[in-house]
């Protein structure tokens, strides 16, 4: 039986950026767009070029290889032509494959927010879509407040959708902007749009989660005929968030209600990387993963001792709706040697490391990782540190250099002109091939000083690390009070454009940073010798 294609549209970098407390840098956006593209999304919406310097810079080049790269903006203002609308002009100049324009489709909004007539708004929709198509780009229209608009004035909401479609929009996306619509209403209203002449193959759904129904509403829309779902990683987004793609993707891929009828572009083998994708994204946001998130949460396949554990030991299907391995998660209780092994073998394979199931070194690696994670390490977000640990445990890693000692000082003092200054200085003693060198460097803060001192004189390796750059540094305090432990995550990049994350954990932030910096340099040296798996440095 032919299955119909559901197109996945990710708006993590646009609607996700509207989440209170979330603010992406250009570097963050590049890292996230790469993750999404690599995972197999059809569309990656990168933000709103022209709205702020970050998004404008992000759209200075195309950031995806396979996914369609989408710029977001709004329809032209009433009273000006499309070619004279500065917002639309700058959108058309952005480097993107497609443009998604938000359009008002609730007459109340047209009157109150835009202050123009209903017909003027329809003219803006038509002219804007035509301008996008004439500019050689795929046009999408986000019909803002479509469901509320339909309830208030069905004829007008339908006219907005149909105008966009007739003008050439590839996708007309029905938005539940305020997030209050319920699944039966979604089903009925989507059916009305299709009956009005906009085919389901050209319809999308953009659901917000204000009543906890964003995923259910997206699936209800698919049932009713839409073929594009917009959502975000881990469900971030304005107010209560957007439809969670990390929940929708496995539901579409694993649940018979959908698998028999639909397919997405996500390679079924990549589903096992879903937990890692979700957790890596949280690491990037510098926040703890939600333990109860469907499929990928640490508790999603956990059970307490007792009746459940006893049945699980007899057959895991007694308490699991899918296997944890299918989404890269782990079963808890049995501390699952079996589940653990499959998971590690898969993760190592991706990094080019082959290990057999009965190799005792694999058991050793699993127990080291579990012990370390219990003390605060998080390897999901630090692929390069995991790679080094795995290589050290399963085979070996060359002792390129040895740091005998380091010292970091922070001094607040008056300079020669009588200005108060805080100065950070680091001293590092390194041994290479029996020769010791001592480097002393001042930096912008203690971690920067330590980084510069570590990389100032690495003897015969110095020329190899000239293009190594640290582009992100994240600190998380793992438990409060005087017992606090610090986790540091560092993102590095080199001249080839490869990026990797390393981790360090200590009760001392400088020491944690030192561990992550060391892993980054060792990883770079291994990479220069073609000794790292592809997935560890993408
Ligand atoms: C539902 C959604 O999530 S839509 C996406 C919302 N995201 C954002 O707004 C984030 C980025 N936005 C911004 O940085 C700014 O709002 C900008 C740069 C786009 C515009 O800034 P400003 O020109 O200063 O306008 P401001 O933000 O104050 O108000 C929005 C204007 O857009 C108009 N507008 C809103 N939607 C539309 C639309 N679909 N079509 C045409 N005009 C629109 C409003 O009427 C208002 O116009 P006014 O200034 O004449 O009253
Ligand atoms: C466009 C959009 O983000 C919304 O209507 O919610």
From TrEMBL:
Q: Pathway, per UniProt? A: Amino-acid biosynthesis; L-isoleucine biosynthesis; 2-oxobutanoate from pyruvate: step 1/3
SUPFAM superfamilies named in the record: 2-isopropylmalate synthase LeuA, allosteric (dimerisation) domain, Aldolase
Which reaction equation describes what this protein catalyses?
pyruvate + acetyl-CoA + H2O = (3R)-citramalate + CoA + H(+)
- Key words, A-Z: Amino-acid biosynthesis, Branched-chain amino acid biosynthesis, Isoleucine biosynthesis, Transferase
Answer whether the UniProt record assigns the keyword Amino-acid biosynthesis to this protein.
Answer: yes
What are the recorded Gene Ontology BP terms?
isoleucine biosynthetic process; L-leucine biosynthetic process
Annotated EC: 2.3.3.21
> Does the record bear Transferase in its keywords?
yes
* Gene3D superfamilies assigned to the protein according to its UniProt record, in alphabetical order: 1.10.238.260, 3.30.160.270, Aldolase class I (3.20.20.70)
InterPro entries per record: 2-isopropylmalate_synth_dimer (IPR013709), AIPM/Hcit_synth_CS (IPR002034), Aldolase_TIM (IPR013785), Citramal_synthase (IPR005675), LeuA/HCS_post-cat (IPR054691), LeuA_allosteric_dom_sf (IPR036230), PYR_CT (IPR000891)
Any one GO MF term held by the record is: 2-isopropylmalate synthase activity
The Pyruvate carboxyltransferase domain, residue ranges: 6-272
- Name the family the entry cites: Belongs to the alpha-IPM synthase/homocitrate synthase family.
The protein, known as: Citramalate synthase
Species: Pararhizobium polonicum
Its organism's taxonomic lineage begins at: Bacteria, Pseudomonadati, Pseudomonadota, Alphaproteobacteria, Hyphomicrobiales
């Amino acid at each position: 039986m032919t299955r119909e294609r559901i197109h996945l549209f990710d708006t993590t970098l646009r609607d996700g950026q509207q989440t209170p407390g979330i603010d992406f840098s250009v570097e963050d956006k590049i890292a996230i767009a790469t993750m999404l593209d690599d995972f197999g999304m059809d569309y990656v919406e990168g933000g709103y070029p022209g709205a702020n310097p970050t998004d404008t810079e992000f759209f200075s080049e195309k950031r995806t290889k396979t996914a369609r790269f989408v710029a977001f903006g709004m329809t032209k203002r009433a009273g000006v032509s499309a070619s004279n609308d500065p917002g639309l002009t700058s959108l058309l100049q952005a480097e993107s494959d497609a443009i998604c324009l938000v359009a008002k489709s609730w007459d109340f909004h047209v009157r109150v927010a835009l202050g123009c007539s209903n017909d003027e708004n329809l003219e803006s929709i038509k002219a804007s879509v035509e301008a996008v198509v004439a500019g050689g780009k795929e046009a999408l229209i986000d019909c803002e407040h479509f469901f509320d608009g339909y309830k208030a004035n069905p004829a007008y909401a339908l006219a907005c959708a149909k105008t966009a479609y007739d003008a050439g929009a590839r996708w007309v996306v029905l938005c539940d902007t305020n997030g209050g619509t319920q699944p039966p209403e979604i089903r009925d209203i989507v059916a009305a749009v299709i009956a009005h002449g906009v085919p389901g193959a050209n319809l999308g759904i953009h659901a917000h989660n204000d009543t906890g129904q964003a995923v259910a509403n997206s699936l209800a829309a698919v049932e009713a005929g839409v073929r594009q779902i917009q959502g975000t990683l881990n469900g971030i987004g304005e107010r209560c968030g957007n439809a969670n793609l990390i929940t929708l993707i496995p539901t579409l891929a694993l649940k018979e209600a959908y698998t028999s009828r639909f397919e997405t572009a996500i390679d079924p083998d990549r589903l096992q990387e879903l937990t890692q994708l979700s957790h890596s994204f949280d690491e990037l946001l510098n926040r703890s993963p939600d333990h109860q998130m469907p499929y990928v949460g640490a508790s999603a396949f956990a059970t307490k001792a007792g009746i459940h554990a006893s049945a699980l030991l007899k057959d895991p299907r007694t308490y699991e709706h899918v296997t944890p391995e299918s989404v890269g998660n782990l079963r808890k209780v049995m501390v699952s040697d079996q589940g653990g092994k499959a998971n590690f073998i898969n993760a190592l394979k991706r990094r080019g490391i082959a290990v057999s199931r009965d190799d005792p070194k694999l058991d050793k690696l699993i127990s080291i990782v579990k012990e370390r994670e219990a003390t605060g390490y998080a390897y999901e977000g630090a692929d390069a540190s995991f790679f080094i640990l795995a290589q050290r445990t399963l085979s070996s890693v060359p002792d390129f250099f040895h740091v005998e000692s380091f010292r970091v000082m922070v001094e607040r003092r008056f300079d020669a002109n009588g200005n108060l200054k805080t100065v950070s200085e680091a001293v590092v003693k390194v041994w290479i091939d029996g020769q010791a060198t001592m480097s002393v460097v001042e930096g912008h803060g203690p971690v920067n000083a330590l980084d510069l001192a570590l990389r100032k004189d690495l003897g015969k390796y110095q020329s190899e690390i000239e293009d190594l750059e640290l582009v992100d540094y994240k600190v998380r305090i793992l438990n409060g009070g005087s017992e606090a432990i610090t986790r540091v995550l560092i993102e590095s990049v080199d001249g080839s454009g490869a990026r990797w994350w390393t981790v360090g954990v200590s009760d001392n932030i400088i020491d944690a940073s030192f561990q992550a910096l060391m892993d980054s340099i060792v990883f770079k040296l291994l990479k220069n010798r073609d000794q790292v798996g592809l997935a560890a440095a993408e």
